[in-house]
Amino acid sequence: MNKTIKTAAIYFLVLLILTICAGYFYYGTFSLLVFINTSFFFSGITLFFTMLILVTQKGFFDAITYGFRKIFAAKQADKQLEEDPSAEMRNPSELLDPINVSPLLIGALLLLVCMLIGLVVFYNS
What we know:
This protein is mostly helical. Helix content is 77%, strand content 0%. The longest helix has 26 residues.
């Protein structure tokens, strides 16, 4: 079995158990509606953070941080004329590059699919 699929299955099971436990402790009971509500919350939060990491890894925020570094470096030019502080800083895409979020993304998408299946069952019954 592929390592990514195995890790995604583990993330899915952890998110599923977390959804069931949080739904039971928050609502005091467990039903299909409770599962739909809590799984929407957990899958949405997880998808948001994985998408944010993916966008950052692709270099979307590199130009923005470069611009801010140049602006703030210009204000500190009197203190450090010989050094360029923006040249020694790493880009956000370089900082988040070693993080592999695809298994977490797959696990969150599987939880979202379970929520959609539960939603179809809830409205058809």
